[in-house]
Write a structure and sequence with these properties.
alpha+beta, Rossmann fold, formyl-coa transferase, domain 3, two-stranded parallel sheet
Length: 380
């Protein structure tokens, strides 16, 4: 059996009601990486905690099945979305350093504060992400820019010194980027060994030739919507490429078929886990890649609900320096519970706040009022 919840099945938060926003901000990912100094920490533009929690479930669920087939026994997998995200985003590079040295980094708005260039820069038709930290990368960027004299200065051959002089370096690079399109900059930098990527819009991604050639987009026939263009699987295996082959079923379309197939399945009650007699991964070589980022990592919606289906839904200031609390209200019952927790203030009784659509339509004033209340408390 697999349990996947925001905070896991044990611990003081196990019974807490929470959504993706709450699980995400419990990990310190927003405080460390996303947002500007002095402003609220931000969530990525999609359901990051649930996304990475699901990846963890898929991987360890398969591992449990593999272990059962090799060694027997049964297991209950307890997956916390918050812990999965914390391990991936703030784990080895942050939590360990804090535990050892008591030092923690804070969000900087954009880019990396310890090395440069590593940031988003404006260009002729948008923006590019540029990273040139290693000597070869910096030399490649210099070649792409035509080897300007300032880039050959001895002091700029060290990425830490460049970071200390970022206010001088970035305007010089921007003079070059503003004369070129993002595609031109990406092509030039990549050709010279400097990791640089254009920041594409959704429209540009949907028509991007690289994704087209890889077959990432597929057209599916839907009985109601007609031909629907959608995404294929991001991870493919040669013998089982995966991805959608047909459109999603209509409501109750396969009920009869499923009920017919499952009618004769015997249901057995398992009272105690069966003990395994061997290690489930015995004889299997395991590769640990430590950490990495995979999946949704950015979006303009910040802490707002990605589907605009909840309000309030955000991060609100608390008493103290850079202290915040995440609050997500999806249902009208949850809203009434929050109103009671606030002491039934008159402003919360307004008819416009009674329903989710009404709160979403008035989310700016709602968040302003809620911030006035949260400022009177610490985040615990």
């Amino acid at each position: 059996m697999i349990s996947i919840t925001p905070f896991g099945q044990t611990g003081p938060y196990a019974e807490w009601k929470a959504y993706d926003l709450n699980a995400y901000h419990l990990t310190a990912s927003g405080s460390r990486y996303c947002g500007r100094p002095g402003e609220p920490p931000l969530e990525h533009g999609t359901f990051s905690a649930e996304f990475f929690g699901a990846y963890t479930v898929a991987a360890w669920g398969l591992a449990a099945v593999h272990g059962r087939e090799r060694a027997g026994g049964s297991q209950h997998l307890d997956v916390s979305c918050a812990e999965a995200l914390a391990a991936l985003f703030v784990g080895c590079q942050n939590i360990g350093a804090y535990a050892q040295d008591g030092v923690s980094g804070q969000r900087t708005g954009v880019g990396m504060p310890l090395g440069a260039p590593a940031t988003i820069l404006p260009c002729k038709d948008g923006h590019v992400w540029m990273m040139a930290l290693e000597p070869g990368q910096w030399d490649g960027l210099s070649r792409a820019m035509g080897d300007p004299e300032w880039a050959r200065l001895e002091m700029f051959q060290d990425m830490f010194v460049r970071a200390e002089n970022a206010e001088a370096i970035y305007p010089l690079i921007e003079q070059w980027t503003m004369e070129r399109t993002k595609q031109e900059i990406m092509d030039l930098c990549q050709a010279n060994g400097c990791p640089t990527t254009a920041l594409f819009t959704i429209d540009e991604v949907a028509r991007h030739p690289h994704l087209e050639e890889k077959g990432y987009f597929v057209n599916l026939d839907h009985p109601v919507l007609g031909t629907v263009r959608t995404m294929s699987a991001p991870i493919r295996l040669p013998e089982s490429p995966g991805g959608p082959r047909k459109a999603a079923p209509l409501l109750a379309e396969h009920n009869a078929e499923i009920l017919d197939v499952t009618a004769d399945i015997e249901v057995r009650e398992v009272t105690e886990p069966v003990q395994a007699h061997a290690l489930p991964l015995e004889g299997v070589r395991v590769a640990n890649f430590g950490w990495g980022w995979l999946g949704p990592v950015a979006g303009p919606m910040s802490n707002r609900h990605p589907l605009t289906a909840a309000a309030p839904h955000g991060v609100f200031p608390c008493a103290g320096d850079d202290r915040w609390i995440s609050i997500a209200v999806v249902t009208d019952e949850e809203w009434q519970n929050l109103v009671r927790a606030m002491g039934d203030p008159p402003w919360a009784q307004a008819a416009g706040f009674a329903t989710t659509p009404g709160r979403v339509a008035r989310i700016e004033i709602l968040h302003e009022k809620l911030s006035e209340w949260t400022r009177g408390f610490d985040d615990y």
